[in-house]
């Protein structure tokens, strides 16, 4: 017999949330989704992906993985972590992401490795997230997102997904995004396929530390998702940089400089609002630079 939401009193189903979030956008989304599962009586465990271990998914009925969209794909540290997960046969999966408007393969990058581990992908959800990338042409887009409307939609979706799983229904829940189940074969899918980390390192400018401003607080070293920064006066950057620019955006002393003269031209060319409306998922009338009316 399937287990029925709030009515069950024993043996609650277990959901494990693994979330990669640098600026907090995806973490907000994870909390809304996880909260809905908790309200239906699930046992919910949440881990920041930088502190998670593959064995943390043991005993889960549902594994939920979330990440922001980087260059129309999932961040490479997330993909590497998912490749290390144990066998997930018999486990249902949810993938979720935040994106500025050109999600490309981000959900597919999360769902495919889970399916390869044997999980049945039951859900996929994506919403807009404010862009904190420092490239001048895109920084600040989708201000305030995910907003209360986004989070309410996420909660409603999660409640429906939880019921779908509790009732033992196979396959994806109603409302699951198609790009969680099939790869994007369009323009931004191609951008993702042609933008591996080595290409991004060649195409986008390198953050350079200014030793005269650095006070060796270590915040950038701790936050680097690839461990590419060595501590010291003006942290030294290694070869694993994925050009997420987290070191640049979080440094309280603004001790990194970036020359955007050429890099921003590339970003503006690929990620201009017109292209994101044509080839991405920005809806007609959806604001890009202004907050939505709630």
Task: Write a concise synopsis of the structure shown.
The protein has 294 residues and is an alpha/beta fold.
What this model shows, in words?
There is one protein chain. The chain is of the alpha/beta class. It has 2 domains: 172 residues, Rossmann fold, CATH 3.40.50; 90 residues, Alpha-Beta Plaits, CATH 3.30.70. The chain is built from 10 helices and 9 strands. A 5-stranded parallel beta sheet has the order 2-1-3-4-5, sandwiched between helices. Helix 1 links the parallel strand 1 and strand 2. Helix 2 packs parallel to helix 3. The N terminus is likely disordered.
Overview features:
single chain, alpha/beta, Rossmann fold, 2 domains, 5-stranded parallel beta sheet, two-stranded antiparallel sheet, 9 strands, globular
CATH superfamily of the largest domain: Flavodoxin domain
Overall shape = globular
Domain tally: 2
CATH classification class of the largest domain: Alpha Beta
Query: Largest sheet, order of strands side by side?
Result: 2-1-3-4-5
Helix-and-strand structural type: alpha/beta
Q: What portion of the residues fall into strands of 2 or more residues?
A: 5-15%
Q: How are the elements arranged and paired?
A:
Blueprint: E1 14-19, H1 25-39, E2 43-48, E3 62-68, H2 76-83, E4 92-99, H3 106-116, E5 120-128, H4 148-166, H5 187-193, H6 197-203, E6 208-209, H7 219-223, E7 229-230, E8 236-237, H8 246-250, E9 256-257, H9 263-270, H10 273-279
Parallel strand pairs: 1-2, 1-3, 3-4, 4-5
Antiparallel strand pairs: 6-9, 7-8
Helix pairs in contact: 1-4, 2-3
């Amino acid at each position: 017999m399937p287990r029925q939401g709030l009515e069950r009193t024993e043996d609650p189903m277990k959901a494990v949330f693994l979330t990669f979030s640098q600026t907090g956008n995806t973490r907000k989304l994870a909390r809304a989704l996880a909260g809905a599962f908790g309200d239906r009586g699930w046992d919910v465990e949440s881990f920041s992906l930088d502190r998670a271990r593959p064995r943390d998914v043991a005993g889960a009925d549902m594994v939920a993985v979330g990440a922001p969209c980087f260059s129309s794909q999932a961040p490479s540290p997330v993909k590497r972590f998912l490749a290390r997960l144990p066998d997930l046969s018999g486990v249902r999966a949810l993938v979720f992401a935040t994106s500025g408007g050109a999600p490309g393969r981000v959900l597919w990058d999360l769902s495919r490795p889970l399916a390869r581990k044997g999980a049945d992908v039951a859900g996929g959800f994506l919403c807009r997230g404010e862009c904190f990338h420092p490239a001048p042409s895109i920084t600040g887009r989708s201000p305030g997102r995910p907003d209360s409307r986004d989070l309410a939609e996420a909660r409603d979706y999660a409640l429906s997904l939880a019921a779908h799983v509790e009732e033992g229904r196979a396959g994806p829940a109603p409302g699951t995004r198609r790009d969680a189940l099939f790869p994007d074969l369009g323009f931004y899918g191609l951008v993702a396929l042609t933008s591996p980390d080595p290409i991004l390192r060649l195409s986008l400018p390198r953050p350079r530390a200014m030793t005269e401003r650095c006070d060796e607080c270590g915040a950038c070293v701790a936050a680097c998702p690839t461990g590419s920064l060595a501590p010291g006066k003006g942290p030294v950057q290694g070869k694993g940089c994925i050009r997420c620019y987290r070191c640049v955006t979080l440094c309280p002393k603004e001790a990194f400089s970036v020359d955007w003269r050429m890099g921003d031209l590339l970003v503006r060319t690929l990620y201009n609002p017109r292209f994101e409306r044509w080839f991405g998922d920005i809806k007609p009338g959806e604001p890009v630079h202004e907050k939505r009316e709630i």
